[in-house]
Amino acid sequence: MSRDWKQVFSSWAAGPGETEERKISNTLTQIRAAIHNDLILKTKDITVYVQGSYKNNVNVRVDSDIDVGVLCKELMDVEFLDDDLSKKVNSKISETTYTYNKFREDLYFALKNHFGEKSVNSGNKSFDINESSTRVDADVVAVIEHRRYDSETSYIEGVCLYPKNGTPSKVINWPDQHYTNGVNKNNNSGRRYKRIVRILKKLRNEMLKNGYNYLENVSGFLIECLVWNTPNHILTDGDYYDAVRETLIFLFDELDKKDNYKEWGEVSELKYLFRTTQSWKKIDARRFIINAWNYVGF
What we know:
The chain is of the alpha+beta class. It folds into two domains: 16-173, Beta Polymerase, domain 2; 179-296, no CATH class. It is built from eleven helices and seven strands. It has helices spanning 5-12, 18-36, 52-55, 83-90, 100-115, 175-188, 193-209, 220-228, 232-235, 240-256, 282-296, and strands at 46-51, 66-79, 120-122, 127-129, 138-149, 155-161, 171-173. Strands 1, 2, 3, 4, 5, 6 and 7 form a seven-stranded mixed sheet that branches.
């Protein structure tokens, strides 16, 4: 008996259930408590915020861990349009003896002290907090403020982290811009944008479980960005089955063209989606699109 993909996609479009949402909320509350109760970090200008799929409301059951940023605003990373602007701005920035490595070390201690040493693992970019009966798995990242200056008084604010292994030397993200753009596109597409993202992420997860191992290179974030670059009129075409089919057709056609995809941006529109610094490649995205089409049987 053939699978009713229309029914499947309609089910997959929904977000996580109430129990899972409660466990996610509990996890965030505990992380904030760990920061608040730490003797060193509570004296710093620290902001704890949710980022990633949970923040942007595109999380699905298999990957409904939460990404949490712990931002120390006493530290700053800056970039400039030219050397002259760099000299002018840097002369006004106050120096601090607190360092990113010390901040990361303090955060690790605070998390271990709250959750227990066996529950916290230190990775290259983040700290992984293991799930339990009351919380989900969480990735906690130590970040500092990043500013992209276009004049002495005007800049775009993001966040920055420095991987332990130095590759790359730093990672810059733009969570606020990502969130705002995602909300706007969702509203402008009749709330289809985030639902199509969830469907394709769940499809990817099922395929990975069934032996499509290369999909380890196709992250949920990449899928979210691919749908971001899909025109709204395609996302609103017919029912979810029709919209997914037309989305895959659009992405296949555009990725097959020589230069179109090179100008695609991440959801924040402050970073290019396909450039040499990214961990994914066009070939992986295209392969997913082709295999997804055949898997569903369009």
